[in-house]
Design a protein that fits this description.
Largest sheet: 6 strands, mixed
Helix content: 25-40%
Distance between the termini: 51 Å
Number of helices: 17
CATH topology of the largest domain: Rossmann fold
Radius of gyration: 23 Å
CATH class of the largest domain: Alpha Beta
Structural class: alpha/beta
Strand order of the largest sheet: 6-7-8-3-9-10
Strand content: 25-35%
Number of domains: 3
Number of strands: 22
Shape: globular
CATH superfamily of the largest domain: P-loop containing nucleotide triphosphate hydrolases
Length: 503
């Protein structure tokens, strides 16, 4: 007889009268990896936050080892051996790695003072055992997003939990780091730890999971053994119909006019070196490279988010001095950052507030905001982006990750930018939302908007880009013309990027 370490029976949960989980039952075997998938807004994170004690006010029953439990907060869940690696990184950025790993469980000396030496030693030992290339003394704010994600994972592993929930754990990891994480998960399994694994990267499920449960519109569709299904099956269960195959662009919209020109751009901290390129009107320029290659630092220099040591930027043939993102906005340059939570959105404000940020001056009169017009703009953009929400007045923090991403992109559609820089625009979104974002990129290109597209996904770069630049250790090493060669082969580009990773 199968032994369930966890059972969630008939869970129903609503926010503001909107039912987000409807009679969902979820069962987790001891020592298994159980994938939980669904489109954005399907209820995955909500179900797991109920399991972890973050949300209450639900109906149904939770059982741990056959015992009915009810959690008032995450501390209660931790006490029953449940921890969660959140999609939103929950770290104290001004503190070091070791302090974050033991946050709330600090090691005290004889006089009840922090025993920092022991904390550093134990934290470093754990990081080394996990094969995470991180120094326990490093301050969190000095680390890139991928290493912060690894610190979160290390914190949860350090708690000796019986159940660990991973919510989109690989969204900012390199391919090497993903495999290291899988190695960690397999070792946890050997120790009898049960894993709930949430991911939009469906190919990962077939590498790591034993079972998969699919949610759609707050309801459980089915649970299946992973070896009995394939990606096409899972996608169809998620969206309710067969997936439309993502198609390459039929033709290029790139014109001859150079709308953005960069010459000999050098980052203030030498992350990127001597970067030069032109971006044409209506062109989609794809930039790809491994995590840490300098791809994000490059575009952050262009929009004034990072300081540059030297170099020249021209917009529309005129040399410009972009010292801050506000200067870029004034020049009709939109920027979707890699970390939408920290830099792309104001989570505690409403959808309409976020959408109007870049064009607020157009919606004021005599110093007062024209709220009716703002609401009208937001409602229009919500419809265009197919955002799943209650109303334009809803807090962005209450949206699913994929719908937050749509709002972050929608802000720049409202501004009618001539140049839009998209850094990982489909990270953390489901297959249906991806296709919607792809269509928006194609539409913008057809409207002569110039786009810089940064992505880890090879097919995404291939299907959308006119030209492709590969960045290695802060320098452009290759340029592939995706038009001249009638689209570069995916395996060729993947090989180039993987070669760069080992460089």
């Amino acid at each position: 007889m199968e032994e369930y370490i966890l059972e969630m029976r008939n869970i129903t949960k609503a926010f503001l009268g909107n039912k987000v989980l409807d009679d969902v039952t979820f069962q987790l075997l001891r020592g298994e990896v159980h994938a939980l998938v669904g489109a954005n807004g399907a209820g995955k994170s909500t179900l797991m936050k109920i399991m972890n004690g973050i949300y209450d006010g639900y109906s149904g029953e939770i059982m741990i080892n056959g015992e009915t439990v009810q959690f008032k907060n995450p501390h209660d869940a931790n006490g029953k051996g449940i921890v969660m690696v959140h999609q939103e990184l929950d770290l104290a950025e001004n503190l070091d790695v070791s302090t974050n790993i033991f946050l709330g469980r600090e090691i005290l000396g004889n006089r009840k003072f922090l025993d920092r030496k022991s904390m550093y030693k134990k934290a470093q030992k754990l990081l080394d055992e996990l094969n995470f290339p991180i120094n326990a003394h490093d301050v969190i704010e000095s680390l890139p997003l991928s290493k912060r994600q690894l610190v979160m994972i290390a914190r949860c592993v350090s708690m000796d939990a019986d159940i660990i929930i991973f919510d989109e754990p690989t969204s900012s990891l390199s391919s090497v780091e993903v495999q290291e994480l899988f190695h960690v998960i397999r070792n946890l399994n050997k120790r009898g730890v049960s894993i709930v694994y949430i991911s939009h990267f469906l190919e990962e499920i077939f590498q790591i999971a034993d079972h998969v449960t699919v949610l759609r519109n707050g309801q459980k569709i089915l649970t299946e053994i992973v070896s009995n299904c394939n990606i096409e099956n899972v996608v169809e269960w998620m969206i309710g119909h067969k997936q439309k195959v993502s198609e390459k662009r039929d033709e290029s919209n790139a014109g001859s006019e150079v709308i953005l020109s960069v010459r000999e751009l050098n980052h203030a901290t030498a992350v990127t070196k001597n970067i030069s390129f032109d971006l044409h009107q209506g062109e989609v320029l794809g930039i790809t490279g491994v995590v840490g290659s300098g791809r994000s630092e490059l575009v952050r220099m262009i929009v004034g988010a990072d300081a540059r040591a030297s170099g020249e930027i021209s917009v529309g043939g005129k040399v410009v001095n972009i010292k801050a993102p506000s200067d870029a906005v004034a020049l009709k340059i939109g920027y979707l950052p890699e970390d939408r939570k920290e830099e792309g959105l104001i989570l505690e404000r409403s959808i309409e507030d976020n959408l109007v940020l870049a064009v607020l001056s157009d919606y004021t009169k005599n110093g007062f905001i024209l709220f009716d017009k703002v609401y009208e703009l937001a409602a229009k953009m919500i419809g265009r982006m197919h955002v799943k929400c209650h109303a334009p007045t809803q807090r962005v923090a209450d949206l699913s990750g994929g719908n937050q991403q749509k709002i972050a992109i929608g802000k720049w559609l409202c501004s009618e930018s001539r140049i839009i820089i998209l850094d990982q625009p489909t990270r953390g979104v489901d297959v249906g939302a991806k296709e919607e974002i792809y269509q928006i990129i194609k539409e913008l290109s057809s409207q002569k908007v110039a786009i810089i597209l940064i992505s880890d996904e090879i097919e995404e770069i291939l299907n959308l880009s006119d030209r492709i630049k590969i960045i290695v250790k802060g320098e452009f090493k290759e340029e592939l013309d995706n038009r001249k060669y009638n689209y570069v082969k995916a395996d060729l580009l993947a090989k180039m990027v993987s070669t760069d990773e080992s460089a």
